Amino acid sequence: MTTKFKRGFASDNNSGVHPTIMQAILKANEGHVVAYGDDPYTKSAVAKFKEIFGPETQVYFVYNGTGANVLGLQAMTKPFNAIICAQTAHINEDECGAPEKHTGCKLLTLPTEDGKIRVEQIRPLLHAKGNEHHAQPRVISITQATELGTVYGPDEIEAITRFAHDNGMLVHMDGARISNAAASLGTGLREITRDVGVDVLSFGGTKNGMMFGEAVLVFDPELARDLKYIRKQSTQLASKMRFIAVQFESLLTDNLWLENATHANRMARLLEKKVRDIPGVEITQDVEINALFVRLPKEVIPRLQEESFFYVWDDQNSIVRWMTSFDTTEEDIEAFVNLLRKQLASG
């Protein structure tokens, strides 16, 4: 007997695998190929990335998002460096200190109301450049889309990368939801990354219909010189790499990445539309991707979670996060909204 779990709004990590990607995995499971990436599936996936981002792009597949961020940052830093990021950044809040442990670098965090950081906040952190007593700022890490569901426009990213490069620094982008950001902006992937000066990109797949796997894209081959060794030492070199690579090949074919992200974003906007005018519901951030941040009456939250689980983002201020996915349906949203109305009405 099999149990079918209903779709919820806790995280796009909770979704299943897109059927097209699942079929690609099954096809890759036929027969034997050489391990550690020396296989036709990996070569084909790398070619897809180069087609989108440019032939000089270096591609490194890893298991997960933390691995992608750590590997990307290791390519850009030495242990006496500092990495500048938002307080809300995944590398600061949700990676158990992995970036600090593996890079040896200090994180310099900046407060943010919307998840984005800006040049005027970064500039004061450069006062210690050249001072041997201080960690030396080397990387600015931004998240696209941000942990608060907001999106950097191309001009905002270019302002940060120009400032970074003018001051001898580099820019890393945590692109766990890069596809959702591009879908929201109506741009391609390259236009909000390489073309506006990003040096290293952690390209997410798991949140957009894949089973597992992320990719580190390095746009300056010099930065990637030792990365294959660092990946191995960091325990992120997959022996059966074909099963990560074939997922990306499928995701990047016929714009499946865009189809999945567009649908997830659209479902979030539909959910926003249906809850916006319900008494007791306050949307706290602009809905730009597949995420809603909502303030609810505190007593309602646990009752609602019992029937449809989601995460509390800010317990002190009773703010929760609702995420939609590539497989969220209008029926899912209607059922959740009805449940929300019922719980709010019961006081």
Descriptive report:
The protein has helices at residues 19-28, 40-53, 65-74, 90-93, 98-103, 119-122, 154-166, 178-185, 227-233, 242-251, 256-275, 300-307, 330-345, and strands at residues 58-62, 81-86, 106-110, 136-143, 170-175, 200-204, 214-218, 282-283, 291-295, 311-314, 319-323. With 347 residues, the chain is an alpha/beta fold. The protein folds into 2 domains: 19-251, Aspartate Aminotransferase, domain 2; 256-345, Aspartate Aminotransferase, domain 1 (Alpha-Beta Complex). A 7-stranded mixed sheet has the order 1-7-6-5-4-2-3, with helices on both faces. The chain has a 4-stranded antiparallel sheet with strand order 8-9-11-10. Helix 8 (178-185) links the parallel strand 5 and strand 6 (200-204). Helix 2 (40-53) packs parallel to helix 10 (242-251), helix 8 (178-185) crosses helix 11 (256-275) and helix 12 runs antiparallel to helix 13. The protein is globular and about 60 Å long. The model has no long low-confidence stretch (mean pLDDT 96).
